[in-house]
Amino acid sequence: MLLSHAKFSRPTQQQYTRSRKAMAPHNIHFDCPCVPFPTTVVATTVKTTSAAFFFFTDLLDETYKNIAEKRVVEVTRSRSLCAKSLLPTFVSRIIKIMNITKDDTFYDFGCGNGSILFQIAHSTGASCIGIEISEQNADVAREAHAYLTAKLKDQSASHFPSIKIVTDDITKYLAAEPLKEHAKGKNLILLSNLLFPKPLTQFIAENLRKAPLGTQILCFDDLYPHGRTLAKIRDPEAFELFEMRDYVWQKESVEWCGAEGPFYVHTRK
Ligand SMILES: C[S@@+](CC[C@H](N)C(=O)[O-])C[C@H]1O[C@@H](n2cnc3c(N)ncnc32)[C@H](O)[C@@H]1O
């Protein structure tokens, strides 16, 4: 099984420092030797050695340790509210894969504690919007945002571009705020939807068929299944609307599982 509820929490500072030492100087190659599905997997390489990367990931660790509110990671009979995260090296890779720039608008649908928004805003300058149904998780994200903003200001290191955290259900948000076209820049959506109920993923898949051209959607439970020949016969529209690319996340790059697994990037064409 891909998802494990075994105890796999965010690495401690000590573990992180250890793995950081082991990594540096290090280019991580993602050329995915064992691919469990019959589609083309895209290889990418990302550098995670910059001082800015380590400065910011250390600051994130400090932030979540010091803020009072803590995220929800276990909810009986509501697995979809589990706010475990992608880890920073994976987020760096996402920045590269989606080519995120300061002109873009990045959405994290189900933003949990906000860590992805913060790293992307800090690294790229993109405008970031997080939608989170759990009030507790959204409060953690807002508290973390305030902490980080104050820290960065104190150190005169840098400041955040716009980050908005909205407490809402993705379905309601999308109905009220359809994605807009931007004069400059594109919409980018992260959907950490492995634990989402199927109807929620299906609702999002239908809604995003109307997304503006150039919108990229990164998902884990495939919005537009496309790996088998039959898929094109079942849903020809998805193939007309989207360019689909398949990837594999690397071991130890997500908090919810130590193994590797597939993810997809669909670009509205
Ligand atoms: C696995 S976490 C992902 C956190 C973050 N996006 C990341 O990748 O690090 C999924 C989050 O989605 C939220 N969520 C689940 N269903 C939702 C819904 N219908 N609307 C908004 N957020 C939802 C959960 O509360 C949880 O915090």
TrEMBL record:
GO terms for cellular component: nucleus. Residues 1-269 form the DOT1 domain. It comes from the Eukaryota. It is found in: Nucleus. Transmembrane segments: none annotated. Gene3D superfamilies: Vaccinia Virus protein VP39 (3.40.50.150). InterPro entries: DOT1_dom, H3-K79_meTrfase, SAM-dependent_MTases_sf. Its main location: nucleus. It is an enzyme of class 2 (transferase). In contrast to other lysine histone methyltransferases, it does not contain a SET domain, suggesting the existence of another mechanism for methylation of lysine residues of histones. Belongs to the class I-like SAM-binding methyltransferase superfamily. DOT1 family. This is Histone-lysine N-methyltransferase, H3 lysine-79 specific. It comes from Strigomonas culicis.
